[in-house]
Amino acid sequence: MSILVGTSGWSYTGWKGRFYPPELPSRNWLPYYAQHFTTVEINMTFYRFPQPATLRGWLAKTPPDFKFTLKANRRITHLKKLKDVGHDVRYFYILAANLKEKLGCILFQLPPSLTIDLELLDSFLETLSPQFKNVIEFRHDSWYTPEVYQRLQIHQVAFCNVSSKKVPPTSLATAKTAYFRFHGLTGGYRYSYSQEELQQWAEEIKKIQAEETYVYFNNDYKAFAVYNAQTIKKLLLDNKSSPS
Fold this sequence. Notes:
Elements: E1 2-8, H1 29-33, E2 39-42, H2 44-47, H3 52-60, E3 67-71, H4 74-79, H5 86-96, E4 103-109, H6 118-127, E5 133-137, H7 146-155, E6 158-164, E7 177-184, H8 195-207, E8 212-217, H9 224-238
């Protein structure tokens, strides 16, 4: 069992002087980040489909064991809302495959306005390829039901466990890969988790018997994500897990 811990993105000007050395040019931020974490979650791919040259550039700047998780493009999740997206999903897979062995997961983050629709979910799950580590983040709590979890298990799609004020906390594994996202408990990604809160989450993560667990912090304000990720890595290590 391996646990990979990182942040949701690395290119934040507010991290300069807090995480990145003040004199370090932005072109060297990713290599520096990769010295401290072995995975990163990419949000940019939600807004635009990535260029293969960009992905290959990331490969060149990171060590062999580094993993990139890509957030699926909003055309799939927010514009089409999972309907008739087979072509779009396949195209995204083709682009993601440029990351080769450094590809972690594909995160499909649903809009908060999308409420439970089991027929829609069944249709969407059929479009997903088991060759990829697919993850779904449901942002409306109507999806938090056994019927949804069972469908994810059948298709070996990971349920995204979220720490947020908008949905209840969970620690579920519906696939061989488990997934956690920390948005913070207040708005604007400005929340910093306490030692006690992270200790509780570390204990929950440790209980997950997945082959691989991804943990990402999205509270980027003032580099809180970095500090919280570093703390939970230490806590997981103290708990005799295998974070990286």
